[in-house]
């Protein structure tokens, strides 16, 4: 999140602390983009996924439908 928002910060327990003031909508948009790319299956639309790394490529693997698609490296 720090890199995407171009701001320094820390993670304490389960809280993200940003060291700058940002509009709520900007943060929500970044979270939505992350979820669409790295959590939700593009085939069935379910969040029952995990990231799998094979050689140098990262895949989003769906436990619900079995789909497997490459994603950009995080």
Question: What does this entry look like structurally?
Answer:
The protein is an alpha+beta fold. The protein has one domain: Defensin A-like, CATH 3.30.30. 26% of the residues lie in helices and 32% in strands. The protein contains two helices and five strands. The strands form two sheets. A three-stranded antiparallel β-sheet has the order 3-4-5, with no helix packed on it. The chain is elongated. The N and C termini lie close together (11 Å). The mean pLDDT is 92.
Characteristics:
alpha+beta; 32% strand; Defensin A-like; 26% helix; 74 residues; elongated; 3-stranded antiparallel beta sheet; two-stranded antiparallel ribbon
What is the chain-wise order of helices and strands? HEEHEEE
**Roughly how many Å is the radius of gyration?**
15 Å
Cα separation of the termini: 11 Å
Based on secondary structure, the structural category is alpha+beta
Provide the β-strand percentage band.
25-35%
Largest sheet features: 3 strands, antiparallel
CATH topology: Defensin A-like
Shape: elongated
Tell me the number of strands.
Answer: 5
Can you tell me the CATH architecture? 2-Layer Sandwich
Order of adjacent strands in the largest pleated sheet? 3-4-5
Estimated helix fraction? 25-40%
Number of helices: 2
Nearest-integer average pLDDT: 92
Kindly give the count of domains.
1
